[in-house]
Automatic annotation (TrEMBL):
One of its GO terms (molecular function) is phosphorelay response regulator activity. This is DNA-binding response regulator. The modification 4-aspartylphosphate is found at residue 51. PANTHER family: REGULATOR OF RPOS (PTHR48111), TRANSCRIPTIONAL REGULATORY PROTEIN TCTD (PTHR48111:SF67). It holds the Pfam family Trans_reg_C. It comes from Microvirgula aerodenitrificans. Residues 124-220 form the OmpR/PhoB-type domain. Residues 124-220 bind DNA. Residues 2-116 form the Response regulatory domain. One of its GO terms (cellular component) is protein-DNA complex.
Length: 221
């Protein structure tokens, strides 16, 4: 899943980007509100982690503009402003969660997973497609009860497919959701990951189906 981190404190931004990447997320990081507002006009994210005290455009305004465009991407406010009034203002502007600094990385990651899960209308941590199961809390796939060994990119592609709950996903959407702004992507790369996933799923009664003109669909046979 691809997320946007907006944090102007460079050491913290680098630390969070590294930790979130190790947790399996593809992370774009912006260091000011104007750049964040720009990419939110053009890019699709599963989650935005937003600081408030930002240069050029503060987090309040980034959030206000985002919701004014009717963009419902989940937003977690991450800030040293811990007063009740600030939390209320953020929630009233459309934030979905509020985590004051300092915080534990494990809590940040858990809240991020919960927000993404709820945005897909799924309250359970575990998602199923035939014998394939995905535990979004533990970020682990199992096939017929056995852990499925995947590379980070394979994991990201299969995660998008299983969370779409029986809906087709285009190559462009897969690229947008798994590749960051500073990473090159192509239709050929997506096809390679799909091919590898099909081999790992083997003869199990679950398959990635190609729908001409629509993309890929994960379905139980």
């Amino acid at each position: 899943m691809r997320i946007l981190l907006v944090e102007d404190h460079l050491p913290l931004a680098e630390s969070l980007t590294r930790a979130l990447s190790q947790a399996g997320f593809s992370v774009d990081c912006m260091h000011n509100g104007a750049d964040a507002d720009h990419v939110l006009h053009t890019q699709d994210y599963a989650l935005v982690i937003l600081d408030l005290a930002l240069p050029r455009l503060d987090g309040w305004e980034v959030l206000r503009r985002l919701r004014a465009r009717r963009n419902r991407v989940p937003v977690m406010i991450l800030t040293a402003h811990g007063a009740v009034g600030d939390r209320v203002r953020g929630l009233d502007l459309g934030a979905d969660d509020y985590l004051p600094k300092p915080f534990e990385l494990a809590e940040l990651e858990a809240r991020a997973r919960a927000l993404i899960r709820r945005s897909h209308g799924q309250e359970s941590n575990v998602h199923h497609c035939g014998p394939l199961s995905y535990d979004s809390a533990g970020r682990q796939f199992t096939l017929a009860g056995e852990r499925l060994q995947l590379t980070p990119r394979e994991h990201a592609v299969l995660e998008v497919l299983i969370l779409r709950d029986g809906k087709a996903v285009s190559k462009d959407t897969l690229s947008e959701k798994i590749f960051g702004l500073d990473e090159s992507s192509s239709a050929d790369a997506i096809e390679i990951y799909i091919h590898r996933l099909r081999k790992k799923l083997g003869h199990a009664p679950v398959a990635i189906v190609t729908l001409r003109g629509l993309g890929y669909l994960l379905e139980a046979k």
